[in-house]
Every structure is written in C-alpha cells, then in structure tokens.
Amino acid sequence: MNGIDSPLRVSNVTISPQMDPRAPWGKARGGVHPLICHVLDTAVVAELLYDRLLGGWCREELEEGLAPLGNVRGWVSVLCGLHDLGKYMPAFQGLEPKLAIQRMGEAAKADIQRRARNPKDDRFDPAHGIVTAIHMEKTLRSWGASLPVAQRIAAALGGHHGRFIKPHDVMKVAGGARQPGWEDVGSLAR
C-alpha cells in the first residue's frame, strides 16, 4: 500500500506527494476554481454534449480518427478536458502570482515570481493554448496517434479560444515549454 508521504507511480509518471493536484488555479475571477476541477468539469460537459452538439461530419471524423483507441466519446471527453493543460506552466500561474504562491507553496514561489506579469517587461510568455498544443501533440504521438491526427487534435485543443496555432508559434515556444523546476507539463496527461 502506498503511504501519503511516498510518491505514487502510475504508468511512467511519478506523482509527488508534495504537489497537491488542486493547487494550480484554472479560473481566478469570481473565486478560485482549481485547474484540475476545470479539467474534470470540461470533460464531463463534453461527454454530455457529444450527441447534442456534434454534427454528423465532425462525429464521423472523430470516430474514424479515434476508433483504434476505443470508446470515442470517452476520448473526446478526456481530450476536451485537457484543453487547458498549458495553464499548469509558471508563466500562466504567474498571471496571479499571489494566488499561485498561496496555493502552490514555497517550492513554486521563485518560478512564479520570475514569470509573473510585469507591465514594464515585454518578454514573450506563450499563450497557454500553444503550450497545450505542443504537449498534446507529443502525448498523442506517444499514445500511438499518427502525426496528422496528433497535429489536428493538438491544434484544435490549443486553438480553443479561437486563435488557431500556427507552426511558427509552436517553433518559437517549443524550446521553452519545459521550464526548470517544474515537471514536464505533458507528463500530466500521460
């Protein structure tokens, strides 16, 4: 039996007992909604709306592309839930640094403060959708998806705010998607 103080190993991912999965925030206006709760809420709603909102052509494309995985509706639900995976990065959490430090603790403080929004600083912080797309493409490929399917799904997930991901955006960000001191965001989806 795994004690609370020892790491939990699931497949090839180690989950540290020091990282509370409820700590990263997903929504911060009108109260705090943890990222994990937003992910789960979105997945459940996607599953409920699958038959009501997806047109025939879209459903056929999804069912053809995801059929090898089985339970297409379940996979669509999971993928929709993962649309905000990029919010786990310090640059996003740093948009609300006091909140993020309060929730994530001292271990994350330096990274969050270093990446916190500074009106005088013109640095490039990637949109969370781009980071989501980068990691989801890699994750989907590691799960056995073909490159075209992985790229389409990653672009759709990353472009969920209506700005679809362009190849130059991905190249600009891909080298910095892993940030020192933080787990590879993609490992959270595996």
Can you put this structure into words, describing what you see?
The chain is about 50% helix and about 5% strand. By secondary structure, the chain is mainly α. It starts with 7 loop residues before the first strand and ends in a 16-residue tail after the last helix. The chain has a two-stranded antiparallel ribbon with strand order 1-2. It has a two-stranded antiparallel ribbon with strand order 3-4. The radius of gyration is 17 Å and the shape is globular. The chain has helices spanning about 35-55, 55-65, 70-80, 90-95, 95-105, 105-115, 130-140, 145-160, 165-175, and strands spanning about 10, 15, 25, 35.
Number of helices: 9
Structurally, the number of domains stands at 1
- Spatial sequence of strands, sheet with the most strands: 1-2
Care to count the β-strands? 4
Named CATH architecture:
Orthogonal Bundle
- N-C termini distance: 22 Å
Low-pLDDT residue intervals, each spanning 5 or more residues: 8-15, 177-190
Kindly provide the name of the CATH class.
Answer: Mainly Alpha
- Major beta-sheet overview: 2 strands, antiparallel
- State the order of secondary-structure elements, H for helix, E for strand: EEEEHHHHHHHHH
- Taken as a percent bin, the fraction of beta residues is 5-15%
Quote the CATH topology. Hypothetical protein af1432
Oligomer state equals single chain
- Helix percent reads 40-55%
Radius of gyration: 17 Å
- Envelope shape: globular
What keywords describe this structure?
globular; mainly alpha; 9 helices; single chain; 190 residues; two-stranded antiparallel sheet
